[in-house]
Amino acid sequence: MKLTKKVLGLSAVALLAVGLAACGNDKEDNKDTDENSTGDKSEAVGETVDYKITGIDPGAGIMEATDRAIEDYDLDEWSVVTGSGAAMTAALKKAYDKEEPIIITGWSPHWKFAKYDLKYLEDPEGSYGGSEELHTITRLGLEDDFPEAHAMLQNFNWLEEDMAEVMIEVIDGEKPEVAAQNWIDKNEEKVTEWTDGIDKVDGDEIKFVYVSWDSAVASTNVVALVLEDLGYEVEMLQVEAGPMWAAIADGSADVLLAGWLPITHGTYAEKFEGKYEDIGTSMVDVKIGLVVPTYMDIDSIEDLK
């Protein structure tokens, strides 16, 4: 009995020692794991998205800013996938539905911020600039030719939540002109502020050019309907950003409402300086940058280095 008891005692001590050693090894393993998990975050993020940023049209100002960000942050391994705004949002939806990582070029106002939980990556280098504004740009001589339209366009301004109402209706399947009219019907007081004291005309023709951004679609359709109510015949032509500014500069179009300044369309504004009139700001505190879903554990562009 004594011998047996002694052997069992030794076995218990041995088992305890083995258990403590195992715990000690687990702690070391956990320590190594923790160190690795908080180590090279950029490599982890880069690998999950194949070191790619999902962008939009190659000529867009936000793409120029993204190229600048890649240089500013030394993101030599990274590339930007060009496409369209629709392709970008389709890629976002696909990744978001599966909670997969994705990095996109983003801007607000845009309906995606109402549909999904997203966040801008911090930009300490200022590659994307600060807050921007939406400017109404017209051809030279518009005030002389269409003083009533010129006055209304100078009065035109609204808030991001106003624009979002129109954008969300459109993305949910409504026709742009119907969504625009719905907003007008619900905001008669604001529309009256734009048109107060302005006489109606008799069929004068005015031409708008706009890019395919949802924000531009929303604003152009709303303003077009307001001008039609004033008696104008409005033509709307969708083009790329460069041709849009060129059409205003050479007088082949009358108005664009999507002048993102000073960064996004800064190159075009500088190129055509003196060949257009900037008649007012329709929205302030708009923004561009790199955007990710909030479920991604990344907060700054610096984390991509």
TrEMBL record:
It comes from the Bacteria. Residues 1-21 form the signal peptide. It is found in: Cell membrane. Pfam families: OpuAC. Residues 44-186, 205-305 form the ABC-type glycine betaine transport system substrate-binding domain. Keywords: Cell membrane, Membrane, Signal, Transport. This is Glycine betaine ABC transporter substrate-binding protein. It comes from Sporosarcina siberiensis.
